[in-house]
Amino acid sequence: MNQYDLLVVGSGPSGRRAAIQAAKLGKRVLVVEQGKRVGGVSVHTGTIPSKTLRETALNLTGWRERGFYGRAYRVKQEISADDLRRRLLITLDHEVEVLEHQFARNRVQHLRGKASFIDPQTLQIVKDDGETIRVSGTSILLAVGTKPFRPDYIPFDGKTVLDSDELLEIEDLPRSLAVIGAGVIGIEYATIFSALDTHVTVIDPKATMLDFIDKEIVEDFTYQLRDRNMKLHLGQKAEKVERTPHGKCSITLDSGRVIICEMVLFAAGRMGATDTLNLSAAGLEADSRGRLSVNPETFQTSVPNIYAAGDVVGFPSLASTSMEQGRIAARVAVGAIAKEPPKFFPYGIYAVPEISTCGLTEEEVKERGIPYECGIARFRETSRGHIMGLDSGLLKLIFSLKTRRLLGVHIVGEGATELVHIGQAVLNLKGTVEYFVENTFNYPTLAEAYKIAGLDAGNRMGELVAKG
Ligand SMILES: Cc1cc2nc3c(=O)[nH]c(=O)nc-3n(C[C@H](O)[C@H](O)[C@H](O)COP(=O)(O)OP(=O)(O)OC[C@H]3O[C@@H](n4cnc5c(N)ncnc54)[C@H](O)[C@@H]3O)c2cc1C
Ligand SMILES: NC(=O)c1ccc[n+]([C@@H]2O[C@H](COP(=O)([O-])OP(=O)(O)OC[C@H]3O[C@@H](n4cnc5c(N)ncnc54)[C@H](O)[C@@H]3O)[C@@H](O)[C@H]2O)c1
Fold first, then answer.
1. Who's near 363: CB < 8 A, 6+ residues apart?
2. For all residues of the chain together, what is the average pLDDT?
3. From the CB of 413, is ligand 1 less than 6 Å away?
4. Per the omega criterion (within 30 degrees of 0), is the bond before 296 cis?
5. CA 20 to 30 Å from 57, out of 211, 304, 402, 404?
């Protein structure tokens, strides 16, 4: 019987969450995945590989200990691409195993093959051996994600000029790397390779980077990158990328400058993976970047029984938000109640150092004309920071002067992506500066920075109220 309640195309974060949610509600679910193993971009080429690579690089270089033992300190003197890959393969195997077990115990069926539309309720699936089958679904969820943007003028060769998928397969670590695109992917990999002592140059046509992050945090971050000799060519376009006769790469910028390096990573955005779905047979159309538009509350496309979730619907394109979108889409699709997610979600950039943020930036607060006060804590002011040998790290809290409520939390430094959740909870529970001033925090912890920042803002807010 090839009839299902829900057909899910793609087994990344949104597809897997949707499938399990529908199965928990007693529905018959089939996940179609074209990749060799389930897990999607998140498990095989995106989130998990890049974060595992980061962790391995930080461990093998002894990065976290350098505050004590100096910049030359290394746990392993010669680090190879194989050293980095070994841990990656173990982590990926584990992720896939957990996911396959989740599917099995929830009776979610999965099939390997490439799906495309025959009509709004029917998919054709082409298996690896060429066999074609047809399946029908009362509802269909497109959770197909994205693939790297690969323009024709970049001479990709999979060895010296690469996209972010290919970077995971390199045989040798480059001594010099140029990263084209200072988005999240470009910056994460640029800083990971810089931690491995690769000489890194970042190029982006925009004069600023990570514009959705609070400016003060980006300034602190940029200072740290320049301090360790990373070259940032912002506001400059890479016009030509060529391989030199000596096995290197040459990048000509529109300013006339030429950069010579061993390897180029092109990371200038991603395209929705919708080109082979035969969308027109379902009455759907993607935009110029291959993305689908949906109702942001239900994740329904313009065709009522077809849903889309995850990166294929665009911003914020995170594994974390994709999971939630998938879950909501599945609930709506099978007629269950689906509550809107809380307003504030965190954004974590796993660069070296980490950045994490939740709520409004200072720039957004100003734009909205909200009277505000900021509290700042530096990790080097905390006892935990002393113990860990941290000489950098910054936590910034923004409060409304009128309501005293927390409006935003912005962190750069060790543990930022974990620490941010304290701020997220206070934000979504509508907490005020008093939460930080009156509560006791474990000591010594980096979380104590919340207390310090809360007191910092609270002192000035107290004075302002007294004057008023
Ligand atoms: C380098 C990198 C680092 C990242 N780091 C983070 C991070 O630290 N934190 C974070 O939250 N997010 C991160 N992301 C983003 C995160 O990976 C994505 O938001 C997430 O994977 C999107 O999930 P998705 O459900 O849209 O599906 P995806 O994970 O994109 O998977 C889609 C799946 O659909 C399959 N598919 C596509 N078309 C078809 C078809 N026609 N038939 C069958 N199967 C098909 C694909 O093979 C793929 O397996 C990162 C992304 C990249 C590239
Ligand atoms: N930690 C995380 O949560 C995480 C990590 C990695 C990726 N992601 C997600 O993956 C998505 C894709 O990331 P991304 O970094 O590829 O894309 P992006 O859109 O965030 O950044 C692309 C960058 O490339 C630049 N650019 C655009 N065209 C260019 C060109 N022709 N030449 C040179 N530079 C150009 C842009 O100015 C921009 O700075 C993001 O939306 C992000 O949310 C998330």
1. 214, 215
2. 95
3. no
4. no
5. 211
Give the residue extent of every domain in the chain. Answer: 2-148+271-333, 161-268, 347-461
Q: How far is CA 282 from CA 31, 33, 54, in A?
A: 19, 19, 41
Give the Å distance between the CA of 181 and the centre of ligand 2.
6
Model-level pTM greater than 0.80? yes
Predicted confidence band at 359 (pLDDT cuts at 50, 70, 90)?
very high
CA 23 to ligand 1 center in whole angstroms: 21
Confidence of residue 70 (pLDDT cuts 50, 70, 90): confident
Q: What is the pLDDT of residue 468?
A: 42
Alpha helix segments (H runs only) across 62-169:
66-69, 81-105
Atom of ligand 2 nearest to the CA of 349: 1
Q: Find the ligand nearest to 270 CA.
A: 2
- Closest-CA residue, ligand 2 atom 1, reads 349
Assess whether the C-beta atom of 417 lies below 6 angstroms from ligand 1. no
Pick the CATH number of 347-461 from 3.30.390.30, 3.40.640.10, 2.70.50.60, 3.40.50.960: 3.30.390.30
ipTM of predicted complex: 0.94
CA 141 to chain centre: 22
In the reported structure, the alpha carbon of residue 146 is separated from the centroid of ligand 1 by a whole-number distance in angstroms of 6
CA gap 241, 251 in Å, rounded: 5
Of all helices (H) and strands (E), which one includes residue 363? Answer: helix 362-367
Residues above pLDDT 90, as percent of the chain: 92
Provide the CATH number for the domain formed by 2-148+271-333 in this structure: 3.50.50.60
Which H helix or E strand runs over 24? Answer: helix 13-24
| Ligand 1 pocket check for 49: Cβ under 6 Å | no
Give CA angle at 354 (327, 427), nearest 5°: 55
**What CATH homologous superfamily does 161-268 map to?**
FAD/NAD(P)-binding domain (3.50.50.60)
The pLDDT of residue 1: 54
**Confidence at 466, pLDDT banded by 50, 70, 90:** very low
Q: Which amino acid is at 89?
A: L
Task: Tell me which ligand sits closest to the C-alpha of residue 355.
Answer: 2
